[in-house]
Amino acid sequence: MKTLLIVxxxxxxxxxxxxxxxxxxxxxxxxxxxxLLTAAQAGPPDLLAADGYLFATPENxxxxxxxxxxxxxxxxxxxxxxxxxxxxAAMICAGSDGAxxxxxxxxxxxxxxxxxxxxxxxxxxxxxxPERILAPKTIEPPDLARCxxxxxxxxxxxxxxxx
Length: 163
What we know:
Layout (H helix, E strand, L loop, with lengths): L1 E7 L5 H16 L2 E7 L5 H6 L2 E9 L2 E2 L1 H14 L7 E8 L4 H13 L3 E2 L4 E4 L5 H5 L6 H20 L3
Parallel strand pairs: 1-2, 1-3, 3-5, 5-6, 5-7
Antiparallel strand pairs: 3-4
């Protein structure tokens, strides 16, 4: 059975909701084992044991969150040239545009020579004040549906051997 690894970081809950929606839909797809881990929990053995990946991070100061970057820093060299060609997708929970965080994540995936199988998904919360940035987030149902669709699509593709 193929395994989809979903790695995320979330401080205010938005990215967690997105990752959970993707994981739930991926599990409903069937035929694929789904592992949902925080960036602090995940490490090189988790990447090596998976057949595909979904990375989810908040945007902080136009970049991916520090703990998500820490995950990539800890894992980059131990798995380099050992996971190339595996499929991945990315989700960003952004307060403004999310493009910087997505670009950063895509560059790391390119270094690992992963195969991007879906465009990056950016959910914008429009949190622009210190109070709104630090407040707990609630992702709206249409955006959660987009996250679920991405998770289901990754699971279906892995399960069918499409990628």
